[in-house]
Amino acid sequence: MCTSYKKLWKILIDRDMNKSDLIRQAKITSNIIAKMGKGEDVSLESLRKICIALDCEIGEIMEVNPKGEKT
């Protein structure tokens, strides 16, 4: 399986935010953002914090490709 966070990056662009803004607002670490940038898995707690900070649902920030193909 591959995880894609392209939806999150698009939301940040649409809201005129950068990754540092998200780190501060969601109270997450830069390591989490780095892992997401590589398409790696992060904890559900981290995803929950991001969703709360952006007032969105988890499906709006990520998607999983069960066939393992990077998107």
Secondary structure elements and pairings:
Elements: E1 2-4, H1 6-14, H2 19-26, H3 30-37, H4 44-54, E2 63-65
Structural commentary:
By secondary structure, the chain is mostly helical. The protein has one domain: lambda repressor-like DNA-binding domains (434 Repressor (Amino-terminal Domain)). The protein contains 4 helices and 2 strands. It is globular and about 35 Å long.
Index terms:
71 residues; mainly alpha; 434 Repressor (Amino-terminal Domain); two-stranded antiparallel ribbon
Output the CATH homologous superfamily. lambda repressor-like DNA-binding domains
Main sheet: strand order: 1-2
Chain oligomer state? single chain
Task: Give the integer mean of the pLDDT values.
Answer: 93
Helix content: 40-55%
Strand content: 5-15%
Indicate the CATH architecture: Orthogonal Bundle
Q: H/E order of the elements? A: EHHHHE
CATH topology: 434 Repressor (Amino-terminal Domain)
Structural class: mainly alpha
Low-confidence stretches: none
What Rg do the Cα atoms give?
11 Å
What is the general shape?
Answer: globular
DSSP E strands, number: 2
Q: How widely separated are the two ends? A: 11 Å
Tally of individual domains: 1
> Could you name the CATH class?
Mainly Alpha
What does the main sheet amount to? 2 strands, antiparallel
Helix segment tally: 4
Explain briefly what this protein structure is.
With 71 residues, the chain is mainly alpha-helical.
